[in-house]
Structure prediction request, 148 residues.
Amino acid sequence: MSAQLFRIQPQMPPEAYRTFAIVSPVETHMRRATCEEVGCEHYLNGWRVRVENLTPQMLHAARTSGRKYVEHRIAEGETWLVYEAGQPCFKATEHRAPIGRPPLYLVRDGDYRGNPRGTKARLYQRPDQWVDDFATHQQNLADEIRKG
Prediction:
């Protein structure tokens, strides 16, 4: 996972950590949306694709997608398909919009490396409960640091 590339190396094993997270999973908190709904830049402004960067299959798909475009040949070896604004982009099926469900407030043992003990995450129903648990945990850490 690329997000782990820039993490500071933990000084303790994963079981020594707790992870506090506020999450809105795509599967339960989002729905498919149109380019227009999400303010897709390509939908709003149009876009272009360089022909030379496409595989033959991708070029065929781009030309036969039903979207309006103009082909511009700038120079030898530089041709662009320029798509006009107001039509779905090529990633239209990937657009998502929130459905208004409140986020999940979770606390789980371990860190990004995992939960070696396999304990179940705690799910709080209200944000203030999560905040209280977080504050208590932070205070416990501060107390341990003071002890030395």
Q: What stands out?
A: The mean pLDDT is 93. Strands lie at 18-23, 30-32, 47-50, 69-75, 78-83, 96-98, 104-109, 122-124. Residues 127-147 form the longest helix (21 residues).
